[in-house]
Amino acid sequence: MNEFDRAARLRIIWRYAALALGIIAMSLLIGIAVGRPFDRPDRLGADAAGTVLPSAAQATRAPPTPTLGAVLPTVPPVPTAAGPLPTFAPDAAWKVLTQEPFDSATTWPASQQTGWSSGYEAGRYWLKLDGQRTISYSILIDSPECWVAADVQVKSGYAGLIFLASDPNIVYRMLIDNAGRYRLERQQAGSATALRDWTASAALQTGPQANNRIEARRVESELTLFANGTELMRYTLPDGATFQSRVGMTIDAITRDSGALAYFDNLVVRVPVVPADR
How confident is the model over 173-182, as pLDDT tens digits? Predict the structure, then answer.
């Protein structure tokens, strides 16, 4: 092989080598371009762990509306001190967590719907039924024990407080009527079980114009109900169930077609004072 043939062969080898290197380089560039979005999870709406995050539109929560027998939060859970509160004796100190005088429209819904409505009037909050049997509004409280109280005027039907919840979809309610009676019940998906059926008490004022201060307190496994400062009854919760404080207002019609109307004022929620050494 002469020098001319050797030079021609080297030129061919270098040409193929350059072409191969170009193909490899192009493949690398394509791979980097394709892989780059997956190196940034936030671009796909995911966090660093790969969990898909909602978009801004998905994260917007629609306002709740009450349905038959439903217990719906109307505001985010009200936090207390970090971590669960310790249990304590009934005579321990309490502090006000939240209170609502209803002097103006706040977080509790004002709505007009078929069969029910709610709103504010003259510094009070009202719930009305006109074709629906029951509605409730409530919020979660980050405390295993609480004390909820409100002034309640029952124009017609039954009305009162929600103050405790457990799974599945169970709430505890204290109801009064305008005939001077009270009731403690456990409600599950609209079906109620009386824990103390309708009982008359001299502590309750009577008549559709009467205002009664009613209160429900939970300490450890014991529930205590009050009316106008007088203890009405105590009830021991069943063992083994997990409870959380869920407080709010509720109303029932005697029958679906009879309607019901109640006014609420001065809603106060208290939780235990946590000693500084705990």
Answer: 999 999 999 9
